[in-house]
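Q: what does this look like with 6R9 bound?
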Amino acid sequence: MAAKKPTVKKKQTEVIFDPKKIAPALVKTAHVKGMEGYKKLYNQSVKNPLAFWGKVGKEQLTWFKPFKQVLKSNFAKAENQWYVGGKTNLCYNALDRHLTTARKNKAAIIWEPDNPATPSRTFTYQQLHFEVCRMANVLQANGVKKGDRVTIYMPMVPELAMATLACARIGAVHSIIFGGFSADSIKDRIIDAGSDFVITTDTGYRGGKVIPIKAKVDEALEKMSGHVRKVLVVRHTGDHVNVVAGRDIWWHEEAEKVSGVNKAAEIDSEDPLFLLYTSGSTGKPKGVLHTTGGYGVYASFTHKIVFDIQENDTYWCTADLGWVTGHSYILYGPLINGATSLMFEGIPTFPDVSRFWKVIEKHQVSIFYTAPTAIRALMRFGDEPVKKHDLSSLRLLGSVGEPINPEAWLWYHRTVGRGKCPIVDTWWQTETGGILISPLPGATPTKPGSATLPFFGVQPLLVDSDGKPLKGATEGNLCIQFPWPSIMRGVYGDKERFYNTYFSTFKGYYFTGDGCRRDKDGYYWITGRVDDVMNVSGHRLGTAEVESALVLHQDVAEAAVVGFPHDIKGQGIYAYVILKEGRIPSDDLRKELIAQVAKEISPIAKPDVIHFTPGLPKTRSGKIMRRILRKIAAGEIDTLGDTSTLADPAVVEILVKDRQK
Ligand code: 6R9
């Protein structure tokens, strides 16, 4: 299998898009107007963060009991508490408090199904409140209590949003697993979270295909007898599924037994809200823990300011609720702000490549937030599918998940945004809970490919490999030097791991794992991960995870995995595989290995290239030289650098020879 040709990084000619010129109407009504507006507030926010966040905290959330202290922190030790002593409930903030306002009958969620022939479903704030209260009652009637971890494995259906909010309502900690993950991944996450209650659906639709959902949960549970007490099943497609007596219960049956009245629990600001598993550079995915007050304030405030939410907007974020982008910017941010959030079950290319544009036209979407990989995939089909649709409702575009190349940025701006919509390229992470670096649409002049400037209260810092802070225009490791309200509070069940992973590399700072350039105007340009985390179509995967899946195969002796530049996915997966003595490389074996990874982790983790090799470049102490493997995978064989410290330099020649074939 040949590797895709690597993308050549061209030196960008810097074009600047000033919102005052391209979107004067937006600037006039924006929450933050002009660079003067941004600079003034930014300066206040870093000069006196406690006053700034205290005020925002009071404005963003309704508190049952006011907080006593804005921030209690020992940042260098990875200890952070926000809005200390405050009591609130994010489900109450997302629903109940809107019911006494004009928003009561406003659409909270518009659901657009996979198949365009199926009708959309709309839930007003009142209707969603009713369903969530029933779901909360069902959970409680089935023994779910505050602090319990509830695992949710569902496709993008409205009941997924309801289940999530119902957990928040009663103080249960939700752990959503993306519907593409395998039974083994589900099992690992249920065990790690110590979860005994699962919410799922019968099956799901994706791109016109039926995908097993409950069957995957069943398979996971079979492998871990006794952990899970109950499985609440939502009937979505109506397909037949296996029902385990005494364990499995149907949502439509349970819902009939309960009322639509449920009092939102009083939740402490620092009580856990959710766990979300994400890949790191070592070992199995870790459960990133977020708590209530700080997360709610930051997710909703960034949503309001970065997307400049106004009362009449129809806002569409195309992510899945199984990723952090879905948590913060489909669910919590928009609903806390009383916005209309569109939830999409499908994919951009079904039934054809104009699906996104059809949905925008149908619902007159005004704010559209998607990932560079989707933009690049759709850009290949030219302007025609876009131009056939009325996209005049769009006033703002967003990008997230990976660096956006200037070519894709310009196409997004000119073709999708008709040259009239500012683009917010939002940089953040599962760990940060919300956007940390991004333009503000009514203020920041943008440069294609740059996430531009820090959000209020965010203090980025670039350091060299020794941790020395770098000044001015430079390139280095991206760190953050002051806490923000939605910083993760810990790795679930492993207190040390939070500090060790994020705060021990560069003492005193939160290290993001990303490399970054800062230009003469102070703009930030994320260059990608500098650790062993890959970003494939905006999905985070650890090289170690994929390697572990490969070596489970009986024929494999050793594997080393690296990312390489890929035109559509951003990064592809390149796997070097050493077979056991006497095993013969073949295309069938390649297929088996790829299937093995899909089964162990998920189809999103399938290697693009399997490169069989007799050996790997290692230092004399036995450490794999990944730098060299990355260069070979990228086809950059002229710049392999120093190979003299290798135990066996001849290995490199063999690898290069095979790569060139
Ligand atoms: C929100 C999300 C985090 C990693 C992050 C970085 C990359 C995200 C980006 C971006 C460049 C952007 N990333 N947004 N890189 N520009 N606008 O994606 O969270 O799945 O945890 O991934 O994604 O490398 O470190 P998560």
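Residues 537-658 form a domain with the GMP Synthetase; Chain A, domain 3 fold (CATH 3.30.300.30). Residues 278, 323-325, 399-403, 425-430, 451, 512-514, 526, 529, 535, 540 surround 6R9 (CB under 6 Å).
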